[in-house]
Write a structure and sequence with these properties.
25% strand; two-stranded antiparallel ribbon; 7 helices; binds cytidine-5'-triphosphate; EC 2.7.7.60; binds ligand LQXTBERG; 231 residues; 32% helix; globular; alpha/beta; transferase; seven-stranded mixed β-sheet; IspD; isoprene biosynthesis
Length: 231
Amino acid sequence: MKNVAVILAGGSGRRMGGSLPKQFLVLGGKPIIQHSIEAFEKNTNIDEICIIIHSDFIQEIENILIEGQIQKVKHILPGGKERSDSSLAAINAYQKESNVSLIFHDAVRPFISQDIINNVIQEVKDGKSVAVAISTVDTIFQINEKNQIVSVPQRNLLRRAQTPQAFSYNVIKSAYDIALNDPHFVATDDCGVVLKYLPSESIFIVEGDESNIKITFEQDLVQGEIILKEK
Ligand SMILES: Nc1ccn([C@@H]2O[C@H](COP(=O)(O)OP(=O)(O)OP(=O)(O)O)[C@@H](O)[C@H]2O)c(=O)n1
Ligand SMILES: C[C@](O)(CO)[C@H](O)COP(=O)(O)O
């Protein structure tokens, strides 16, 4: 089985603002995406890396690969409008290969640990679909369009989704094939696609950690520097 890390970096970082997409902002002296790429580069269970990026930023990625002496990157592909379009670009790129698992990771989660990657690979190696998640200390409200609470799900059964999310190739490909026939298809992550369109497939949770944050808003950069100092 070939384990391919897919680094999703095709977003523009609207919530962060600024002209440079947030994955290129510097934390601890390195672009955020470089931390993410290096985490998978140094993991011995990862065979190959595929980077999804807007075509305007391919040169920036190539510079980072040289700077970080990255050897495992086999594809740098243009992303799409939505995160799911970017996932699909990777799925299409591996169509002709057999025995592949795709391990999707947000480029903007730079503090992914080696333990989490190893635990994900351990599960996906057994043919399972895997999501990384952590428990929630907050109670979560489900609301409606009028901003009214409609339910308060039992908190000990709720988890906050992180990445990586990993699937054997056939599972993720089948789920997206069905999803693409749905005119109302929208997704904020890949597990949601598998759960909705391939409901017979179980997705198992691997415990994440609080430092595996997604850099989304400006204040996350401050938290990111704190996490780096603690490491
Ligand atoms: N069309 C897209 C949108 C997002 N992503 C990637 O998915 C990850 C998580 O997305 P998010 O944090 O939402 O990033 P952005 O879409 O860039 O941010 P925003 O939603 O604030 O615009 C990021 O690494 C982002 O680059 C992607 O590959 N392709
Ligand atoms: C995949 C994800 O990071 C899990 O929490 C999240 O759904 C990505 O959402 P975004 O809106 O693309 O940041």
